[in-house]
Amino acid sequence: MSSAIEQAKRALCAALERAGLQAETAFASERAAARESAVAVVGLRRGESRGGGLSSYLGRRQEGSRWREVYGLRMELTLSLDLYAPAELGTEGCDRALETLHRVMLEGLPSGLRPKELCWEEAAWDQETAMFLRRGSLRCEAVFTAQAEEDNELVTDFILKGVVRQ
């Protein structure tokens, strides 16, 4: 299972993709010139754990005939949301990507990602990628749960709330 931070970044990318905006957690600037549409690049600017790891006991949940202990973990994250648009789209490409981002913040995030503040800068030409760039960030709370089997008390991986396990 991936780290909690990677889960949050991937969940945000998936929500943006569902809304029609290309999204990645890593950006190869050498391939930027080949892009024909805007892309959001999601990263981590800052993070802080809340709840002291396993001290956040949430209770028990029954699954069939088995009982599981449920624990929670909260993280305060500031995710970077850098919006790149090809030269042909201009700053308007960044504007449209920002509108999609706002729509996702209002209605498209999993329940474990709770937005608090979305900030962005003016779109400007980025010499390194030969694209327009609007730097932004999302301050949010990420909520994770983990379960322990009743008989062996082993805690399984923390999973972002509202994300289906694959």
Structure description:
This protein has helices spanning 4-18, 90-107; strands at residues 22-24, 39-50, 57-63, 66-86, 113-120, 124-126, 131-134, 136-149, 159-160. The termini are close together. Strands 1, 2, 3, 4, 5, 6, 7, 8 and 9 form a nine-stranded mixed β-sheet that branches. It is an alpha+beta fold and 166 residues long. The mean pLDDT is 81. Strand 3 (57-63) and strand 4 (66-86) form a beta hairpin.
Task: Provide a compact summary of the structure.
The chain has 166 residues and is an alpha+beta fold. It has helices spanning 4-18, 90-107; strands spanning 22-24, 39-50, 57-63, 66-86, 113-120, 124-126, 131-134, 136-149, 159-160.
Strand-helix topology:
Layout: H1 4-18, E1 22-24, E2 39-50, E3 57-63, E4 66-86, H2 90-107, E5 113-120, E6 124-126, E7 131-134, E8 136-149, E9 159-160
Parallel strand pairs: 1-2
Antiparallel strand pairs: 2-4, 3-4, 4-7, 4-8, 5-8, 6-7, 8-9
